[in-house]
Amino acid sequence: MKRREFLKAGGVGLAASAVAAPSIAQSMPEIKWRYTTSWPKSLDTLYGGCEYFAKRVAEVTDNRFQVQPFAAGEIVPGLQVLDAVSNGTVEMGNTALYYYWGKNAAFTFGTSLPFGLNTRQHISWLNFGGGQDMLNDLLKEYNCFGIPTGSTGAQMGGWFRKEIKSTEDLKGLKFRVGGFAGTIIAKVGGVPQQIAGGDIYPALEKGTLDAAEWVGPYDDEKLGFVKVAKYYYYPGWWEGTGQGHNVINLEKWNSLPKHYQAAIDIASRDTFTWVTGKYDYVNAPALKRLVGAGALLRPFPQEVLETCYKAANEIYADLSQSNPHFGKMHASLAAFRNDSLAWMQVAELSFDSFMMRMRTKA
User: Per the count of CB atoms within 10 A, which of 9, 67, 115, 277 is most buried?
Assistant: First the structure.
């Protein structure tokens, strides 16, 4: 190529670069958000999942979109995350939506409906059964938008200072239980308490609580409950799953570039795999350690489960008549659950049951 032609061609290239660079910079602005959570830092799977989420957002956006997580209490208390996001104190948060059932009972569908779905069923219903769209219709009333993040899997029934032999033993029992399940506990005679994770141990130790549920073996071990309550019950019928959500201020969400919205969505989905996978890996050895430390494993009596199941469905019937959000979500979830259980009974249950029998033979 002749020198004059080279310079001419090079000039075109330089001009194109000069146009492209500002365009790229404008489409990839530097943005910093605050991300408040409902979890103490000691819970390295729930809070750790939030740290993982923030890291993934930064990676996907070449560090131009920075989301800084804050533990419960650093900006607002753990049970005020939705309020902080709604009023714009922070841009986004991570929480369990059932903490806000007092605002609207339908929020329980975001985390776990008692006697509802397991983890796989729940994420399926949220993503493919219209569940998340219905939740976002509700969240819109609070100026928020939600995306599912990590799930704990099925939870334990909690730590009790005395044995539960019948429903009579629940009467007058001061029980820390998360979210909407407290209405069922109250209907069968218990006294539900909703307090943040970091406050449970001292309340159990002092006798302010008679029992408390949190998540499962790994987190329960970290919080030390085995030292103050020996009876460890299962299953946590109020949480066949424990689904967390990222909640985002709706105005902030709408103002984000589309590829930053995609980054949040991608990172949230990645976080689901990270949190749920980790819990499945760490809970089994933690349960062994808890038993070794003196935990007495007990199943809830069938009579207790059936009584609570009946009470739950009576509450659902009433709420479906009075609360349009609740009625719509419950009808959708119940129809999906019916078909899903029939399928899982054929494949999942038969496989799992066989493998568990082989484990005991081995």
Answer: 67
